[in-house]
UniProtKB/TrEMBL annotation:
UniProt key word DNA-binding: no
Pfam families in UniProt: Pyr_redox_2, Reductase_C
Name listed for the protein in its UniProt record: FAD-dependent pyridine nucleotide-disulfide oxidoreductase
One Gene Ontology cellular component: cytoplasm
Ranges of residues in domain FAD/NAD(P)-binding: 7-303
Record keyword Oxidoreductase present: yes
Required cofactor names: FAD
UniProt-listed PANTHER family: APOPTOSIS-INDUCING FACTOR 1, RIESKE DOMAIN-CONTAINING PROTEIN-RELATED
């Protein structure tokens, strides 16, 4: 039995996937996941969707089933905060003084919601959504007729809006930028998502500036710059992004610059110390720069890459950005980058379409509603020149475009 010990700081998506892959690839040392939450690693995406809607329970979110943990001898220490890692010695220190000696350490600390100052007597009416406990606290608020204000129309804010609206809640979303999601998916696709919400009765007010948020005895009052009257609601959810959890890495002497800076394999400058997931800013050869991404697929793939790197296998993951979102029973997917103007295949009015982002007829990315298969094909077409007219023609099988080069080679 190898005596090596692998410790993760944080026990979320990345840590769980890294542990699973270490075992899968034959690592027979000790694996310890240390998390400050009271739960074993769980999936966060359902927190704003099925779990919030009450159609999924806590056990359904667990990433590593109890039997797998037992069979694979993986230890999870919950309710425990790591305060520092002596990176050179790889000594992991917990709050309260205890600690662990490790051979390899993975910082998989994720991020924490950006906070908004809110005065007033009822802080309990102010919600954030990052953890299972946050979701459990928010779920009872979603009752028919309740008025919910959501500050921030990013994906999480919009998913909460969709879940709340489906539960009969009166939802108002306040967003600072003129077109929600435009930074990520471009204005045209952002507009399409907005329309989806408005069609479902959500009041989206974009391009508004907040003058202040406060709680009163029985509700929340939001002052909007230039508005005749404040917005009043029974509760508010603040969804204005996350800040990567990097304080412990910084206190441990690692290089932090909007994320823990790592190479393409997830390695920090200190041998045996890795970082991955939402907290890491990894070098992407594809992009030619460091990127910090806040999506499930990235967290999972980086978890695999770190497990490989730890075992001395150089298998960097540099896949294009891909993520999904579910809103109003519709599946939204995005791959690549939102460069150029999207051209539409399908029916945008009926929310059954794919927008292909083209630059000089080269595919840069795709955004789709209820067309996951198109996104899978688009992923294969990224960086390739296409005939835009063929792309948009619903009679064209996208896979014919994907395999066109191969077919030509066979013919030649
Ligand atoms: C509500 C919600 C919905 C989402 N929906 C989608 C979606 O539809 N599609 C998608 O692609 N992505 C989605 N995401 C994003 C995705 O869940 C994250 O990208 C992913 O969870 C990141 O994994 P991670 O391991 O980096 O961080 P996390 O899963 O956040 O895990 C980090 C863990 O480390 C703990 N920790 C931090 N510091 C310490 C410390 N010092 N000591 C001990 N423990 C510590 C944290 O408390 C946390 O438990 C969603 C996220 C949320 C919150």
């Amino acid at each position: 039995m190898s005596r090596r010990t692998f410790v993760t700081v944080g026990a979320g998506q990345t840590a769980a996937v890294a542990a699973r892959n270490l075992r899968r690839h034959g690592f027979d040392g000790r694996i310890v996941l240390i998390g400050d939450e009271p739960h074993p690693p769980y999936q966060r995406p359902p927190l704003s969707k099925e779990f919030l809607a009450g159609t999924e329970n806590e056990e359904g979110l667990w990433i590593l089933p109890p039997k797998w943990l037992q069979d694979n001898d993986v230890e999870i220490i919950t309710d425990t905060t790591v305060v520092r890692v002596d990176a050179a010695a790889r000594a992991v220190e917990f709050s309260g003084g205890a600690g662990l000696q490790a051979d390899s350490v993975l910082f998989a600390t994720g991020g924490a919601p950006r906070r908004l100052p809110v005065d007033g007597p009822r802080p309990d009416l102010v919600h954030y959504l990052r953890t299972l406990d946050d979701a459990a606290r928010l779920a009872p608020v979603l009752t028919p007729g309740r008025r919910l204000a959501i500050i921030g129309a990013g994906f999480i804010g919009l998913e909460i809006a969709a879940t709340a609206a489906a539960a009969g809640v009166e939802v108002t979303v306040l967003e600072a930028v003129p077109v929600p999601l435009a930074r990520v998916v471009g204005p045209a696709m952002g507009e399409a998502v907005c329309r989806l919400h408005r069609d479902n009765g959500v009041d989206i007010r974009a391009g508004v500036q907040l003058a202040g948020v406060r709680t009163a005895a029985d509700g929340v009052v939001i002052d909007i710059a230039g508005a005749a009257a404040p917005l009043e609601a029974d509760a508010v959810v603040v969804g204005i992004g996350i800040i990567p959890n990097t304080a412990v890495a910084a206190a441990s002497g690692l290089w932090v610059d909007d994320g823990i800076v790592v190479d393409a394999l997830g390695r920090t400058a200190v041998p045996g110390v890795f970082a991955a997931g939402d907290a890491a800013r990894r070098y992407s050869p594809r992009a030619g720069r460091h990127l910090r991404l806040e999506h499930f697929d990235n967290a999972s793939r980086q978890g695999v890459a770190v497990a490989n790197a730890m075992l001395g296998r150089e298998a960097p993951s540099d896949d294009p950005l891909w993520f999904w979102s579910d809103q109003y029973g519709r599946n939204i997917q995005f791959v690549g980058t939102a460069s150029g103007t999207p051209v539409i295949r399908g029916n945008r009015d009926e929310f059954d379409f794919t927008g292909f982002y083209l630059e000089n007829d080269t595919v840069c990315g795709a955004f789709a509603i209820d067309r996951g298969e198109d996104v899978t094909a688009a992923r294969e077409l990224l960086g390739r020149g296409v005939d835009a007219a063929a792309l948009l023609d619903e009679d064209t099988d996208l896979w014919d475009l994907v395999y066109a080069d191969e077919d030509e080679q066979v013919r030649a």
